[in-house]
Design a protein that fits this description.
Helices cover 40% and strands 15% of the residues. By secondary structure, it is of the alpha/beta class. α2 crosses α8 (227-238) and α4 (73-85) crosses α5.
């Protein structure tokens, strides 16, 4: 198989959560550029306009506005995706909510929303995916899930205790999902970025919750990762080039954890 064929996602159908902007949108665009169909999900209504972008070929991008904290999010999203695309081969659990707040100041409502979006939604979306694959008459070739975790799953930072807990759960769930879903022919991997140049991060910087004068002191590569860099790794993990990659967590952290 030629290298370009191994990386191709031609005809594949992917759900991408958190896709109105930033990393999720970049992932959807890169999957589409490799021949895939994409179903964009976000609580932000802007996601509907993004699916109409000229960067997506006609009839290859679809969208739905849905809050992943809703109890019915997973079945509603899957039903809509199947109605739009007819099949789902790839699930990208990208959506997340980040709340910079001291542990002593965190409220139960805030904590519960963090867990609902960052941990519960990926769990039940993956459950729906596994259920779909197990019942599908056309068994997808190289079905896969990519979960977006975080460097916070591996290193401690102040003001991010609750968030780190949800991302640690994603990392742990990825390994267990890979084991449980292997008999269904589903590969499951995760990516743990450090700092990615997204609108959300830019707002955190503008609000001075991060001191950029010293922030990169412990990084080997002293810059923000681009959304496209992460998206290219997602595409690799979904392709036939990564057919033997399963249950792993990939770091794009600028060398932070090397220390």
């Amino acid at each position: 198989m030629r290298p370009e064929t191994q990386r191709s996602l031609e005809g594949k159908c992917a759900i991408v959560t958190g896709a109105a902007k930033g990393l999720g949108l970049a992932i959807a665009k890169v999957i589409a550029s490799h021949g895939g169909n994409v179903f964009l999900v976000d609580s932000d209504p802007e996601v509907m306009e993004q699916a109409k972008s000229s960067e997506f070929a006609s009839g290859t991008a679809f969208a739905q506005v849905k809050d992943l904290a809703d109890d019915d999010a997973a079945p509603v999203i899957f039903q809509a995706a199947l109605a739009a695309m007819g099949e789902v081969d790839i699930l990208i659990n990208n959506a997340a909510w980040s709340l910079h707040k001291l542990m002593l100041d965190m409220t139960p409502v805030e904590f519960n929303r963090l867990v609902a979006i960052n941990q519960r939604a990926p769990y039940f979306l993956s459950q729906e995916f596994a259920r779909h694959i197990s019942h599908s008459a056309r068994k997808p070739n190289n079905a896969c899930i990519v979960n977006i975790a975080s460097v916070n799953a591996h290193a401690g930072f102040s003001h991010l205790v609750a968030y780190a807990g949800t991302k640690g759960a994603i990392s742990a769930m990825t390994r267990a999902m890979a084991v449980e879903m292997a008999p269904l022919g589903i590969r499951v991997n995760s990516i743990s970025p450090a700092v990615v140049d997204t609108p959300t991060l830019r707002k955190v910087i503008a609000d001075r919750k991060i001191d950029m004068n010293t922030f990169f002191d412990n990084f080997l590569i002293k810059r923000l990762a681009s959304c496209e860099e992460i998206a290219q790794l997602v595409t690799y993990l979904c392709s036939h080039s990564a057919a033997c990659v399963d249950g792993s967590d990939w770091m794009i952290d600028g060398g932070y954890l090397a220390h």
